[in-house]
Amino acid sequence: MDSNTLSLSGTHLIEASAGTGKTFTIAHLYTRLVLGHREAEAPLEEPLMPRDILVMTFTEAATLELRHRIRTRLVAAAALFAGGEGSDPALLGLRNWIPRQRHSDCVRRLEEAAAGMDEAAIYTIHGWCLRVLTAYSFESGIIHNDEEGSVDAAGLYSTAVADCWRTMMYHSTPEEAALLKPLFPDPAALEHALGAIRRGGNATEFRYGNEALPPGGDIRGTIRRETELLHRIRELEEEARGLWRDERETLVRTLHQHLGHFNVRSHGWARDETTFAAAVVTLDGWARGEGPEDGATASLPGKLSRDAITVKKGMTPPEHTFFDALQRWVDLAASRDPKRLTATITVHAHETVTTGFTAAKRRSGVLDFDDMLHVLDTALCREGGTELAAVLRDRYPIALVDEFQDTDPVQFRILSALYLPAGTLLLIGDPKQAIYRFRGADIHTYLAARRQVETRHNLPVNWRSTPELVDAVNRCFSRANLWQEGAFVLNRDEVPFIPVQPSPTATRTPELVLEGRRPPALTFLSLETGGESIGVGDYRRQIAEAAAALIARWLSAESGQFSGFGTTPLTPRDIAVLVRNRQESEEIRTALTRRGIQTVYLSDRGSLFETPEALDLLLWLRAIQAPHSGERLRAAIATGSTGYPLDQLGALLQDQHFILTQTDLLVRCRDRWNTSGVLAALRLFLW
């Protein structure tokens, strides 16, 4: 795509990979609109000012970045049209398209636009919807409560959740309530479960694994059927219990006779007479109704169900109707999925809560984050919506949408109502990122837009990465794209992998050297297990150890070969480790710490109060609060942060002189707390 010849009328989808210059392209197209350069071969048209060009993105930080980049671009263009020197090929090409006699007008327009960027129509889509509903309340048919904070929308939502929870519980039979109580013990638990749906934005499809969960439906019927299933499971369990009680002696004798037949890997209780006796005690307790209600199918007695019995090669399993009864119970219990039930009830409750919440907001004249979209969508779709669309299209004759892959169905309906019938709409996004639903993206919305726009373009050059890395990524994903599902586990014709070209100027200076040589752009490490399976925890630990050892070798130069940039040695801050979750982060950080390498977890959202240091601090404060409490003093001294060696700690806590000295210190710390504050007290305690 040539950013100087792209037609700035009609509807276009510009597909871009990471590093291919999406923001640069938006800023350059914006500059052309300010100059009135809509078509490559046509005369200049009526220029647009920043307040007339609608630019939408999805975060406040992105709006600030766009505003800055566009202003910078306008200033650079003004300097170039004023006769200055420049090396930007896109701006130089744009200047060549426009007759020289018009350059002075162009300078004036560009300078005016740069000065007017504070009024630029650059918004998040939610912010723009709020602005429209406020400015066009008559046309949209909504009266917005402008008294910020006058009504607590979060409180209204919690009330709607509590109403749903009470209705669900109070209309239940005792058996149904017993089923629901562990899943949703209080309204707060239901609100927490609904949070996952709310974070999904305007999703209209809900799934549990690969199964679609339809919204709405008969929630009472779902609870009733689950209660009936649970009742039948308990009946079958009681049938098996009765057989054990009635046939106990026969069953104990049968099991004992087959004790040497069982595979002890699966049946540890059959290892010897002691473990067998303990198993009989467990089965007796189970037959009397003792022990946990859940989990019995996964251990004894469930391990004695017909299909769960495993015996050594050449041995025969025991025979009795008891084992068949256990199998019927285990099979039916396995058909029950409490997590699926929780998900199903949550989806049902979502519709009920949303209805109540919407009604409460309407009564209070409140708009929350998502209402801005739904209200404008409704206003554009109902009778008279075409007039509102025409008014908005006249106000914003052209729209550029950044990060379009994050658009959901409601947002795209709004854009379609405004610009697809008759308008100019430029959508810029990375189709590969449209598969990430956790970010609110919707692949089906993206594909629908892809089919509806008049033309599609792509940005072919990666300006950020080295040629070696671009080539490695191209080869990796191009090979994956040979499968029918494509590189992204979708139809490859819908979301194909499109290789990009490296920028000829994107070489790193100075170049990275690891152990005396330039490293490959992409290296795969595989864990060799000799064909044996390995647990996730062991896998994480071994991979973390391997990665940490590699990093330590680079940093220490123990091989005798230099690692770094030019003559500058490699440092820990030059290295980034990407992880999927906190568990992986803790594994790699632990492995690096053992090697003396400092790390920082940039995605750490944990509470400071949950750290070991916070617990130590709490124990110190409790000791200072009650300095004569021997229990609190010992707890404070034994914390890891005080630094006393473990082999000395026992002796110190038995040393009366040490105890008296520390008690006196705690008394002085308490007095310092009362006179100078807690920080002064802690400083005295530590120093």
Stretches where pLDDT falls below 50 for ≥5 residues?
A: none
What fraction of the residues are assigned to beta strands by DSSP?
5-15%
- How many helices? The count is 26
Major beta sheet, strand line-up: 3-2-6-7-1-8
Largest sheet: 6 strands, parallel
Distance between the termini: 66 Å
The quaternary organization reads as single chain
Quick one: overall form?
A: globular
| Structure class | alpha/beta
What's the number of extended β-strand segments?
A: 13
Question: What percent of the residues sit in helical stretches (DSSP H or I)?
Answer: 40-55%
**Mean pLDDT metric:** 87
What is the rounded Rg? Answer: 34 Å
Please provide a written account of the structure.
- By secondary structure, this protein is of the alpha/beta class.
- The protein contains 26 helices and 13 strands.
- Strands 3-2-6-7-1-8 form a 6-stranded parallel beta sheet.
- Helix 5 (125-135) packs across helix 15 (371-381).
- The chain is globular.
- The two termini are 66 Å apart.
